């Protein structure tokens, strides 16, 4: 393709996939505040039982992603990204409708498991980015995709809570409508990114299962090391949803209002870093140094969170912690250069499986650590144990990244 034509085509394709991912994230964000409340209704108002089931729902969702992400990645390598994304959008709409009208807990659980299967298409979206973006610009493009996540998870829960006040099932219906709209958008607008000559010659189940996808990483020393970094980052990041609300109450005495303000600031800083700074930092430092810079900011940010004596000091550390967002796009960009176009889907599927493993391990790891802090009645800097644990993971990931990227 002529260079003068290729650049506008790439920009258009990136805009299309950005909108597709954003709509999917909005649909997920809508149900965040109401799913626990719906479970509470099913449990007759018993908060303890509802919390236990919420943890089971989260684990089941991640388990389904673990198995589905590499399969969808391999399918997209064989048949193209567009059909996989379209089928996933249609499947998500069905999942949300099942949850919207479920009258029993098993049906609600089935809907959540199915959403874990279909939401694995986020890995396919990353493969799409690798298809249409030259290697030197992939980190910035992955950052834009991260900005879509920031936008969706910042504003959608607010609207979801508002809709839930009208009818607790309305956010599920609106989410289903968004997914159906996304399917129509993709059907008529989203172009295919993987040209036929770059597709895998055949689809093989033995290469599409999670263990086979992880073997792809082991076959490349650099990939395996960077995959370990991505896993540690994914695990550390889950300290936020697992413990932040309870930690803020225990350490700072914050109610929902202050927690809401804090999450809004997190979302805004994420959008600024992912959407506006990743490309500039990578251009200035290069991918390897940008990765190390991001890991350093993440480790220091988590350390400052744990040490913060007041909530305002916690806020002061947030811009530093937000710069951690440079690390993941840089790592992904480096990883995409170590596999062929025919394996980009498998690579992203493997990364998706690793993130799912992190999602399975994190609830017990962080909640039990925080529970130990509370049971021991620890206060002051000792109360920040979960954030020190996250800081250690990121620091360890930084050391691994420094070692495996020395030749970059």
Produce the secondary structure layout.
Elements: H1 3-31, H2 35-42, H3 47-79, H4 81-101, H5 105-118, H6 121-132, H7 138-166, H8 170-188, H9 205-208, H10 210-218, H11 221-237, H12 239-252, H13 256-285, H14 287-307, H15 311-322, H16 327-336, H17 344-375, H18 385-404
Walk me through what this model shows.
By secondary structure, the chain is mainly α. The chain has two domains: 1-188, Growth Hormone, Chain: A; 209-408, MFS general substrate transporter like domains (Growth Hormone, Chain: A). Helix content is 82%, strand content 0%. The protein has 18 helices and no strands. It has helices at 3-31, 35-42, 47-79, 81-101, 105-118, 121-132, 138-166, 170-188, 205-208, 210-218, 221-237, 239-252, 256-285, 287-307, 311-322, 327-336, 344-375, 385-404. α4 (81-101) runs antiparallel to α8, α11 runs parallel beside α17 and α11 (221-237) packs antiparallel against α18 (385-404). The model is unreliable at 1-6 (pLDDT under 50).
Would you report the number of β strands? 0
Uncertain parts = 1-6
CATH C-level of the largest domain: Mainly Alpha
> Span between N and C termini?
28 Å
What share of the residues lie within helices? Answer: over 70%
In DSSP terms, counting alpha (H) and pi (I) runs of 4 or more, how many helices?
18
InterPro entries: MFS, MFS_dom, MFS_trans_sf, Tet-R_TetA/multi-R_MdtG-like
Transmembrane segments: 12-32, 52-71, 83-102, 108-129, 141-164, 170-190, 223-247, 259-278, 290-308, 378-402
Domain Major facilitator superfamily (MFS) profile: 13-408
Pfam families: MFS_1
């Amino acid at each position: 393709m002529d260079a003068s034509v290729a650049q506008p085509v790439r920009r258009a394709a990136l805009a299309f996939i950005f909108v597709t991912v954003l709509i999917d994230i909005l649909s997920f964000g809508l149900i965040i505040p109401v799913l626990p409340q719906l479970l509470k209704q099913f449990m007759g108002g018993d908060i303890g039982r509802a919390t236990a089931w919420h943890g089971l729902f989260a684990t089941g969702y991640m388990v389904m992603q673990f198995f589905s992400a590499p399969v969808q990645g391999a399918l997209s390598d064989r048949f193209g990204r567009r059909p996989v994304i379209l089928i996933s959008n249609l499947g998500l709409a069905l999942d949300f409708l099942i949850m919207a009208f479920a009258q029993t807990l098993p049906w609600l659980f089935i809907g959540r498991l199915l959403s874990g299967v279909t939401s694995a298409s986020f890995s396919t979206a990353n493969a799409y980015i690798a298809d249409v973006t030259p290697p030197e610009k992939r980190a910035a493009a992955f950052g834009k995709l991260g900005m879509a996540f920031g936008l969706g998870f910042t504003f959608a829960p607010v609207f979801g809570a508002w809709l839930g006040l009208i009818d607790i099932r309305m956010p599920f219906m609106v989410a289903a409508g968004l997914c159906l709209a996304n399917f129509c958008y993709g059907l008529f607008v989203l172009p295919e990114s993987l040209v036929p000559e770059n597709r895998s010659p055949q689809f093989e189940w033995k290469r599409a299962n999670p263990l086979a996808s992880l073997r792809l990483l082991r076959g490349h020393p650099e990939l395996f090391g960077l995959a370990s970094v991505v896993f540690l980052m994914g695990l550390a990041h889950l300290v936020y949803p697992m413990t932040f609300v309870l930690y803020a109450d225990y350490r700072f005495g914050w109610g929902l209002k202050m927690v809401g303000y804090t999450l809004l600031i997190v979302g805004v800083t994420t959008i600024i870093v992912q959407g506006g700074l990743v490309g500039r930092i990578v251009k200035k430092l290069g991918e390897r140094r940008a990765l190390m810079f991001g890991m350093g900011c993440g480790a220091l940010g988590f350390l400052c969170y744990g040490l913060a004596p007041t909530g305002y000091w916690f806020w002061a550390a947030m811009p530093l912690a937000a710069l951690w967002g440079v690390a993941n796009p840089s790592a992904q960009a480096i990883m995409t250069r170590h596999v062929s176009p025919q394996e980009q889907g498998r690579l992203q599927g493997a990364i998706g499986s690793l993130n799912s493993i992190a999602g399975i391990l994190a609830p017990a790891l962080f909640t039990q650590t925080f529970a130990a802090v509370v049971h021991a009645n620890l206060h002051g800097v000792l109360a920040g144990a979960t954030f020190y644990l996250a800081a250690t993971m990121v620091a360890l990931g930084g050391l691994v990244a420094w070692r495996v990227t020395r030749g970059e």
